[in-house]
Amino acid sequence: MDETRHSPLEQAHLALGAKLVPFGGWDMPISYGEGTLAEHKACRNSAVVFDVSHLGTVRLSGESAFSTLQQTLTNDLRRIQPGRAQYTHLLNEQGGVVDDIIVWWVNETRFDVMPNASNTTSARAALGGTDVTSERAVLAVQGPMARTLVATFSPEIAAIGRFAVAELVVDGAQVVVAGTGYTGEDGLEIAVPVDAAERFFQKILESGVTPAGLGARDTLRLEAGLPLHGHELSPHITPLEANLNWVIGWNKETFIGRAALEAERRDGSVRRLVGIVTEGRQPPREGAVLEREGSVIGEVTSGNFSPMLGSGIAMGFINTSEGLVAGDAVDVIVRGRALPGRLVQLPFWPIKER
Question: Is the pTM for the entire model greater than 0.85?
């Protein structure tokens, strides 16, 4: 039996010429007619809309919801308040990242927890709650013009600030909006009831926003230096190795994996995540070996061509014992050949002091 899940917007995507691919147990658009490169640049220069309905939504409600999340996930909910969103991790006892999650604190007693598509079951097993993924679609409008264009049909949605969360009634539909995203650009993520999904999608397109697929979402997050679970994060990679110490609520009494992270903080991590820019347009790829003066120092976890830099970029882990810093030369071994590169501070885009 085919257990592949389908977005409520699948027919709308096909009508726009989208190419669908399997992703996290779902068939989702990888790109549309003009391709990933054009969609990437549209996000950096104007605004695009991604269908991210494959992401999970696990809803926790009631007086115990806060304490359950606080005792399970790494970040400290006391840093925020109702009407805000927070990035956090679900760890195993060894300190590895079972999933990276956005928590939408919708109101005093309701939290919508947003795990990655393939990890929704794991998140629900750890947290409880109700899986309401099938009840809504999620549209991510991203880019410097996102709010301006959305405001042409819904000023209320456009007014939701960065990392703010709000319940709204728009065009007769109950929606939840968060000022979040995964591109390095400003934007909004809009959860709408399934029966209103196509109507909202069309309104977004009619406002001048370009449809974009998961191919552009991946190149955008890579340029922005944002980790992807299964690549820069996994049950075998800790937040400290991924330079995400700020996701840890050290002032909390407990969370899953705390003891392992405390030991790592005391003793130091054996590897750390770095950014690499390579010469020319050839992209480094996941799994490529990193070398320094002929010695293996690490491995690429994500790599691609950067449309904004016009060169190859990658993230990967290197041994901390090497003592390398931004600006140091490294080689990326691609098909047995050394591709020259150098370490850089993340993110790749926008360009900061290297």
Answer: yes
